[in-house]
Specification:
The complex is a heterotrimer of chains A (324), B (839) and C (257). By secondary structure, chain A is an alpha/beta fold. Chain A is 30% helix and 28% strand. Chain A folds into two domains: 182 residues, 3-Layer(aba) Sandwich (Rossmann fold), CATH 3.40.50.620; 123 residues, Rossmann fold. Chain A starts with a strand and ends with a helix. The chains are: A alpha/beta (324), B alpha+beta (839), C alpha/beta (257). The interface between A and C is large, with 94 and 78 residues.
Chain lengths: 324, 839, 257
């Protein structure tokens, strides 16, 4: 028996939880077709969807103590679900919550836990392959104890409905919680605010400029582009070293490490120390005269050309389309 | 990405400062189809150039390095990438002040404006420095910083504009193809390039690349630690990269260099941290770049404290943080000089490695000229890759010597200073006997050579003040008055000199005569049994060497040359052997086959006479002749020649018989009081009294036979390398003249008598600057005692109008002037001008 | 006054390509060197800021190789004033073993009168990525714990901890002290050391300890490397003519306002 901790958001079951269900189903099939159960805390689940993804029984933990998130309380619920089912595997998505709750579970049950599994290698004993070193390496790890506790790394497997949908049964229960389980609960939540305040590290768009800017006066167009995109200006080390821009704008090993949705480095060759600071960007559009520059080869998209010509053209194009 | 061409006139591997400079100068000199590749991306492929601190202090004690630096600065200025900041080398001790005075000598000798200043001068220009521990400083206003990456791009672009160059970055060399001893192709990750000329300009990777062709570039990657501290308000408030002078804190082996709002602190004080060329990370494996290794903080900690104490207000400023710290890799060589020129192992494979930012463009020009014309305007023989003997190319030697040298980067190095490690490698057959005689060994290219013998100490009493004792510690370091005592004993009786360190190679075969004739200046078509002493010139008429050649048979010449330059000489002869098969010749290195012992002095003939029945009279065995004779029960090749100006012979025996000959000569010499004599006499005092010139001191590629006053009445008819240039030089008035001077008064301001060691500037009597026709300023090429004359002798090239007998000038030593008088304006010796003693 | 203990771990720097040791049991730091992770650095910074605000002391503890002293000294140079190293080969240590040893240090310090009110850790180790030491430590000490925390404030003897909620908002936890908090990077900017800081760090005597029990193990069989990702750059064009294609891209990414 496998119990999967299922996370939900405003749109229902999260994608990573569906992925975890797929992983669990594959493992269950390998283990002779044991059932896969789900545990949902608090909210009412979409049982149809869970059934499509092969969940036999949906355990819904309810109770006053579960009104707001507390890892320890969620862990208590999962431990109780395990007791109800006799599950030999407890798993969750490798999200911050998934990892936190399962760490509590493994600690309570005094068994090991494997974080961020991407595959399983064997069943006797169970060996999972999991991400380590930030995903740069994989570890094969034995989980001989029962229950086996692990989380499944995001996008390790593709979410897919089961070949045969099940008729998911809902079983509500109120786990027994102790006061200590509620000490670490969320006491308040504020909605996220898009950050435009100048904090480079949290900016969603960063427009970068390097030595190619040519001098302290060479940042006009890139600043304008950053404004149009609601982003921040970031610069390379040489730019701050030369005193062209202040240090707080520096991206790189010795400056800020950024992780925007879009990074647009202009005239930055991509020295390795700079790369270290921007490698986490989701999409990189590099603009540089040198098509062979490391930034250009590592980027998602590239434009070969002089930033002083390309960037104003982009600004004009944006203005033209928005009619301003 | 540009495609890798399949053919090239020349392939330059590496796009650091050296490779970039090289492609520019090759293109400028007319080369086309140049292909430059680098495994990294442009403009910073990840080598040492990319993390260099990029500052230039022009004054070095080496003329070669200084000239390369000055040429580089000129080029950087032309490219508009040089920013002058000025620079201080500060002294915390009196010993360092003395060294800075010596630096003043070098500055004046090389014509660089510099000044010794007090702490207040430093404080004025660097207000945030603490001067409590500073007693003085060496101020060079022309110190500056360069943008070496920008310079590289500009130089590549110039070659591209000429249509001479294809640059392909991100391509790795996978193999070098050698066919019959010549490079024929470069195999790369982007395809094969056929070529017959390849330059390895790969910095710390050079050994790895050269090894693919079976050649050695004996350098090692070594760590230089640097941190960057900032932002510092005092620096940030001024615009631009640098507005404060760079400070070299010589006694803590550190420098402080402004870089925008940051202060870079670099250190040469830590333990030598060497890496293996094969174990440098790839670009992807590296944290920053392959040559920016992880910082090892503990090694830097002592320097941090010293730097902080020197600039507490700046380095301790609010908000000033250590923002960047690396163990930067740079290239070190066993003798500290770059490694330039065609490898002796593989024809067409050149090295341009172990070069600093300050020399890069100059080296690029010199190597390009060398590749084009066979020689360069700036003499770079100290950097010639051919200089290394096999043992000097070993990894173990490179590691040991660079480890020992690292701490001397900012150290006070005496010109006579000896290495402590890697000793006892090449031992003469009489080495054990020499140890019993109390030999003080100096090392030359691995050979242990007695410099003087403590066993001769009794002579000091015999000669008293004639040994010209030196009271100052610096003047007498690596020196002994016994040298001068041995000198006097040789001049009065006889001296026995171990010359095993000679490099000896035979030129043999039907083409031997033509080969030697075309390589040397003197007439080589002499009868077998004759000895010639001759300059060897390059195509431009500069000195390539000076050496002796014995004609042993019609098809057999033996070349004898100094150990230091022997390997380069051998390569030069090899390179100029006749190429056609009709009259071929071959070079055979017999250095390790023969031990040589010199026997000289008025009693030499008596002593040798006791050991041989052969006719060794002047009539029977004339000067400049050689022959096999019997010495006791040994067969000996005797050559009547002298570098010390005395009657006598060089005696060549098989190496294994050297010890026996050494004993025989001492036994036979005892009745006449013959003594073993060290290289202190042979290399300095003996020759300097006779005005004999030495390669590397008076003679080098920038000097001519005429300037060295070594011309003979006629030029031989047969063609030889440099003949055309030499004939032209003879027709022109010399721009400079080699003169011999004696010091009139040694008394310093403190009353102590001081003795110059070489390298000091020659000035007018009242300290005015002299300039010769080349625009050079005179400096002492050789200095030494002339015990037979009771004088201290200096040699220097002087402006022709100053080169008059009796002209009174001055030498500046440790920033004091000493009067000197010109005693010879040509090669006329100060001692025995008629050479009567040699007969 | 607040007494903060920050747990840090010597890990290979993560900015270069990852290499494995010959026995495939660990990430090889030979080219990149060793460092503290960003999470750890943020935890140190957070602790330092708390003590700057409230007074008190920041201590460090690490479990690992003797060379971890280098990382302790690096961290000491930005604020903390004491450090403990439980010297061991981490090869056979799992997260439970590490948590156990840190708990032993906390208890030992308490017996000496050094009560650590707040124990901060990096959210997860940059090399082994276990995500458990904070929770197991808290369990061993019987203290509350929260993870994924960006900032911490101390008010009236309680820790107000802020982290990201799953929907991108900000959630707050309110813990009584003593507590354990696992810190994620991003809430504070770790400072670089100053020279004075570094000089001071050198003088701190590091408390050396040895493990109190045999490790239970990590379950590790071996490490492997995933296949490399190929370069997939898509060139949108050359020069100013590429502008429309660029703006098309901006629109598809939804970054245009």
């Amino acid at each position: 028996m496998i119990v999967v901790l299922i996370e939900t958001d405003a749109e229902g079951v999260t994608e990573t939880s569906l992925e975890t269900l797929r992983f669990a189903r594959d493992l269950a099939a390998e283990g002779g077709g044991v059932p896969v159960h789900g545990l949902v805390v608090g909210s009412v689940p979409d049982t149809d969807e869970l059934g499509k993804h092969g969940v036999s029984t949906v355990y819904v933990a309810r109770g006053e103590g579960l009104a707001s998130y507390s890892a320890a309380a969620w862990a208590a619920a999962l431990v109780e679900a395990r007791e109800r089912t006799g599950a030999v595997v407890l798993t969750a998505a490798g999200t911050p919550r998934g990892n936190e709750v399962l760490a509590h579970v493994a600690t309570r049950l005094d068994v090991p836990m494997a974080a961020n599994a991407v595959a399983f290698e064997g069943l006797a004993p169970l060996v999972v392959k999991r991400q380590v070193a930030g995903g740069a390496a994989l570890e094969e790890m034995q989980l001989p104890a029962r229950p086996a506790v692990f989380t499944v790394a995001g996008h390790a497997v593709e979410a897919r409905p089961a070949d045969q949908a099940t008729e998911a049964v809902v079983e509500e229960f109120e786990p027994g919680l102790e006061a200590a389980d509620l000490v670490g609960r969320v006491v308040s939540t504020e909605p996220g605010v898009p950050d435009q305040s100048g904090d480079l590290r949290s900016a969603r768009v960063v427009v970068g400029a390097g030595r190619g800017a040519g001098g302290p006066d060479g940042f006009g167009a890139v600043s304008e582009l950053a404004d149009l995109l609601g982003g921040q200006l970031g610069v390379s080390r040489v730019v701050t070293s030369l005193g062209w821009r202040p240090h707080h704008e520096q991206v790189g090993q010795t400056g800020s490490r950024i992780a925007p949705n879009l990074y647009v480095p202009c005239g930055i060759s991509g020295a390795i120390q700079h790369w270290a600071g921007c490698a986490s960007s989701k999409t990189i559009l590099a603009i540089n005269t040198d098509a062979e520059a490391p930034m250009m080869t590592k980027a998602t998209y590239a434009v070969v050309g002089d930033m002083h010509e390309v960037v104003p053209a982009i600004v004009d194009e944006i203005r033209r389309r928005s009619g301003t | 990405m540009a495609d890798v061409p399949t053919r090239a006139r020349v392939v330059v591997i590496g796009a650091g400062i050296v490779g970039n400079s090289l492609v520019h100068h090759l293109a400028r000199l007319g080369w086309r189809d140049i292909v430059q590749i680098d495994k990294g991306a442009l403009p910073n492929p990840g080598g040492s150039t990319g993390h260099a601190s990029n500052f230039i202090f022009p004054v070095d004690h080496s003329r070669e390095i200084t000239d390369l630096t000055l040429d580089s600065v000129r080029q950087y200025k032309e490219m508009d990438v040089f920013t002058e900041s000025g620079g201080y080398e500060i002294a915390r001790t009196e010993e360092r002040m003395e060294e800075l005075r010596r630096r003043m000598s070098s500055a004046k000798a090389w014509g660089i404006e510099a000044e010794l200043v007090g702490p207040e001068h430093v404080k004025e220009k660097v207000p945030f420095i603490e001067t409590d521990d500073i007693i003085g400083a060496f101020w060079t206003p022309s110190v500056g910083v360069v943008d070496s990456l920008r310079a590289g791009t500009i130089m590549r672009e110039k070659a591209l504009e000429l249509g001479a160059l294809t640059v392909v970055p991100n391509v790795e060399v996978t193999d070098l193809v050698v066919t019959d001893g010549r490079i024929t192709a470069v195999e790369t990750s982007g395809g094969t390039i056929e070529t017959d000329t390849v330059v390895v300009a790969c910095g710390v990777w050079s050994p790895r690349i050269a090894k693919m062709a079976g050649a050695a570039i004996p350098l090692t990657p070594a760590v230089h630690q640097m941190i960057s501290v900032g932002p510092i308000p005092q620096l940030a408030e001024r615009p631009g990269e640098i507005s404060f002078p760079i400070v070299r804190d010589m006694d803590t082996f550190c420098y402080e260099r402004q870089h925008g709002a940051d202060m870079e602190v670099g250190s040469y004080a830590h333990r030598a941290i060497l890496h293996e060329p094969d174990e440098i990370p790839s670009i992807d494996q590296a944290k920053l770049s392959p040559t920016e290794m992880p910082f090892t903080q503990a090694d830097f900690d002592p320097q941090l404290e010293q730097a902080y104490e020197l600039m507490p207000d700046a380095l301790g400023a609010d908000g000033a943080e250590i923002r960047y710290a690396i163990n930067g890799l740079l290239s070190l060589t066993p003798d500290g000089a770059p490694i330039l020129g065609e490898t002796p192992e593989v024809k067409g494979l050149w090295s341009a490695a172990a070069v600093w930012i300050k020399e890069g463009p100059g080296v690029g020009r010199a190597v390009a000229e060398w590749m084009t014309h066979g020689s360069s305007e700036i003499d770079v023989h100290h950097s010639d890759i051919a200089r290394f003997y096999p043992h000097q190319r070993t990894r173990s030697h490179v590691r040991a010597r660079t480890s020992e040298a690292f701490i001397k980067t900012y150290g006070i190095v005496h010109p006579g200073e000896q290495w402590e490690g890697e000793r006892g490698k090449r031992l003469a057959p009489m080495h054990t006997q020499q140890k019993q005689q109390g030999a003080h060994f100096f090392e030359t290219v691995g050979w242990e050579r007695p410099h003087w013998y403590d066993g001769n100490e009794a002579l000091l009493g015999e000669y008293g003040d004639r040994v010209m004792p030196r009271e100052h510690e610096w003047d007498s370091r690596w020196w002994s008055p016994i040298i001068n005592a041995e000198h006097l004993a040789m001049r009065e009786r006889a001296g026995i000199v171990d010359l095993t360190a000679f490099a000896i190679f035979d030129v043999v075969g039907p083409g031997a005569k033509d080969a030697v004739q075309r390589t040397v200046v003197a007439q080589a078509d002499v009868a077998p049994g004759k000895v010639i002493y001759t300059p060897v010139l390059d195509e431009r008429g500069g000195f390539k060497s000076d050496l002796t050649v014995m004609r042993l048979a019609h098809d057999h010449y033996r070349v004898v040359t100094g150990g230091l330059h022997g390997m380069a000489d051998k390569k030069w002869f090899s390179d100029h052997l006749p190429a056609d098969g009709s009259a071929c010749a071959a070079i055979v290195d017999v250095t390790s086959a023969y031990s040589t012992i010199g026997l000289w002095g008025p009693k030499a003939r008596d002593i040798l006479g006791r050991l041989t029945d052969d006719d060794i009279s002047d009539g029977g065995f004339g000067f400049l002749s050689c022959r096999d004779i019997e010495v006791g029960n040994l067969g000996v090749l005797a050559s009547r020649i002298s570098y010390v100006g005395e009657l006598g012979w060089e005696l060549y025996v098989p190496m294994e018989e050297g010890a026996r000959l050494w004993s025989l000569l001492h036994e036979a010499g005892e009745p006449d009081g013959a003594v073993p004599v060290g290289i202190g006499v042979y290399g300095t005092t003996g020759r300097i009294e006779k005005g004999y010139r030495a390669f590397g001191f008076e003679l080098d590629g920038e000097r001519t036979i005429v300037e060295a006053a070594m011309q003979r009445p006629k030029v031989k008819q047969a063609d030889f390398i440099g003949r055309e240039a030499y004939v032209k030089q003879r027709e022109e008035d010399p721009k400079t003249v080699l003169c011999t001077m004696t010091v009139d008064d040694h008394t310093s301001a403190s009353g102590a008598k001081r003795y110059m060691l070489g390298g000091e500037p020659i000035l007018t009597r009242d300290g005015g600057t002299l300039t010769d026709g080349h625009g050079h300023h005179p400096y002492v090429t050789s200095a030494g005692s002339a015990p037979s004359l009771g004088k201290h002798v200096l040699m220097a090239y002087l402006p022709p109008d100053e080169a008059t007998l009796g002209n009174q000038l001055a030498v500046s030593y440790m920033e004091e002037l000493y009067p000197v008088t010109i005693e010879s304006v040509d090669s006329t010796p100060l001692l025995d001008p008629d050479n009567a003693r040699i007969r | 006054m607040v007494d903060v203990l920050v747990c840090v771990k010597r890990v290979p720097d993560s900015s270069g390509e990852v290499l494995l040791t010959a026995d495939a049991q660990a990430v090889d730091a030979r080219y990149v060197g060793s460092t503290l992770s960003d999470h750890d650095n943020c935890a140190v910074e957070l602790a330092t800021q708390l003590v700057e605000t409230h007074g008190g002391t920041v201590s460090l503890v690490s479990v690992g190789a003797p060379e971890s002293v280098e990382q302790l000294r690096s961290a000491l140079s930005v604020g903390p004033t004491a450090a403990t190293l439980v010297e061991t080969d981490l090869r056979d240590f799992g997260p439970a073993d590490i948590a156990h040893e840190i708990a032993e240090v906390v208890r030992a310090h308490a017996e000496l009168g050094r009560e650590h009110d707040l124990v901060l850790l990096g959210n997860d180790a940059a090399d082994t990525g276990d995500f458990q030491v904070p929770v197991r430590l808290a369990h061993a000490l019987g203290r509350p714990v929260v993870t994924g925390i960006k900032t911490v404030a101390i008010e009236n003897g309680r820790a107000l901890a802020h982290g990201d909620s799953p929907d991108g908002g900000r959630e707050t936890f309110d813990l009584p002290l003593p507590a354990v908090v696992a810190v994620s990077e991003g809430g504070v900017s770790p400072r670089y050391p100053t020279i004075k800081g570094r000089m001071g760090a050198k003088k701190v005597e590091i408390e050396m300890r040895t493990p109190t029990r045999e490790p239970h193990g990590s379950g590790r069989v071996r490490l492997t490397l995933p296949p490399p990702a190929p370069s997939t750059v898509q060139v949108l064009g050359e020069g100013p003519e590429a502008a429309p294609a660029v703006v098309d891209l901006f629109q598809s990414l939804g970054v245009l306002r």
